[in-house]
User: Fold this.
Amino acid sequence: MSFHEKSAWIMGLLLSLTGYWYLSRVWAMSEAMGETAPPVIGLIAFATVMLVAGAVISHIIIAVSNPEEAEAEEDERDKQVLRQAGNVSGYVLGFGIFAGLWQYYFLRDGNLLFHICVGSLIASQVAEYALTIFYYRRGV
Amino acid sequence: MAKRPPISNRVKQLRETHDGMSQAALAKEIGVTRQTVIAIEQGRYSPSLESAFRIARVFGVGLEDVFSWDDPQDS
Assistant:
């Protein structure tokens, strides 16, 4: 398994867990308030710090386990896989933002727009990692 | 995902006939990772024209001695 594939597995897992934690907290807050909860910067900051810390620690571990592979530059296949995965994940992000905008147009709920945008960012990144793994395994 | 082109290759056989050249050694020669050589051998990745020529040059053979188009309708 290449360094990029290992990285995609780790980041996909970390982001899925962090994203689930964040969105479940927002959901619980919204249910308690009886309306869409406003964005809580502290919650976002905590989730971001946890994600970055997890990413740094895990990447240090996989780099130490195989330094030669970690230092190698992306080759033509890596670039093709990452470009294709990034391209498709862009559609996921675009769809989410588009849905959020229409929601705002009809419901005028700015808080929900914010959460949909954050959710779309998370979903598009998770999709990018999942597709990276898929293309590495199945071919591009 | 696009349908895979009907391209086959003899990279593995050529490696074996060249003193059992390792995948890592071939990867280093042509400037890709070992995983990419594995993907080429398994038919999961079609290399760029540049890499295809590099592979052929490493083994001292022509391009069509390494790669072949297997669709009988297009031959």
